[in-house]
Amino acid sequence: MKTIKGPAVFLAQFAGGGPHLQNLNDMAKWAKECGFIGVQLPSWDSRVMDLARAAESKTYCDELKGAMARHGIEPTELSAHLQGQLVAVHPAYDLQFDNFAPAEVHGNPSKRQAWAVKQMEYVAKASRNLGLRNVAAFPGALAWPYLYPWPQRPPGLIEAAFDELAKRWKPILDIFAEQGQNCCFEVHPGEDIFDGTTFEMFLERVKGHAACNILYDPSHFVLQQLDYLEYIDIYKDRIKMFHVKDAEFRPTGRQGVYSGYAPWVGRAGRFRSLGDGQVDFGGIFSKMAANNFEGWAVLEWECALKHPEDGAREGSAFIKKHIIRVTEKAFDDFAAGGDSSVALRTLGLK
Q1: Chosen CATH of 5-346 out of 3.30.930.10, 3.40.50.2300, 3.40.640.10, 3.20.20.150
Q2: CA atoms of 286 and 8, how far apart (whole Å)
Q3: Taking CA 184 as the corner, what is the angle to CA 178 and CA 188, rounded to the nearest 5 degrees?
Q4: pLDDT per residue over 115-170, tens digit each?
Q5: Which of 11, 19, 106, 269 is within CB 3.0–4.6 Å of 98 for a Cys-Cys bond?
Q6: How many C-alpha atoms does 117 have within 13 Å on its Cβ side?
Q7: Closest CA to 84 of 226, 159, 9, 188
Q8: Is it true that the peptide bond before 7 is cis, omega within 30 degrees of 0?
């Protein structure tokens, strides 16, 4: 069994959040003060890193690692959520998702997609140069507007969307494999891969690609009312990353799972700071330990109520409390009964 590494924190929700969070050196110092030992880096944020330079220069990556190490912090993984999102965008979301890309590709979906693919190549190479193994990404979505089958979907629409999604991602996954990297898709509403069934649909179309893996985040499964503990057992061989994020689901006579038009504070399902929601993290960390999860426990903070810096400090302590230092021996070793030959003679077999 493996002891999960951590606690670590995903910097995306904190970068730029105050004068002390404007560059990687200061973010690392802040993270250490909060009790973290690792940081997950948003690769699109220039305050954190120059992605193109990181893809080209191991020396630059060593400098980044050195800046973090001076504060007792190490990088855990890179995130390419925003770039991955742009690999596949339904036209209904073109205007919103243009904001994830530079101005020169706005209003041109094909150029935006090409930019995103190149970004994913940079991320794979930068992750290798940093000595890392796993990258987080969104897969994008072509079929999401048709989630609920009303009006009735044209036959083959979902299948065609997943065929195209796989066609776009297969060359990227090949690049990741060449660089010795895992592309870990965050299974997330709003993406075409949002549960186990959709992950399997995609995985089948990329021929079980070894670089195609999962970022596990139980908060999204609470909001879907999916069994997030069984999910770990089903996909344990593909789960390479772990976002520790809490959530709660409190349906009322007015709303349930489909409550997305309400503001976050008023939704039946909403994200919470660690320990304030309903996720069974004791069960999750036990499953991770039993299944030999080799990665990091990374706080992703999202809460409509609590201040982020309080959530960070509380979250660090929460993760540290839940990490299981796995045992190196069985609890009943003291009563061991000798070698197997004795047992066989006892059974009358020898």
Answers
A1: 3.20.20.150
A2: 18
A3: 150
A4: 999 999 999 999 999 999 999 999 999 999 999 999 999 999 999 999 999 999 99
A5: 106
A6: 18
A7: 188
A8: yes
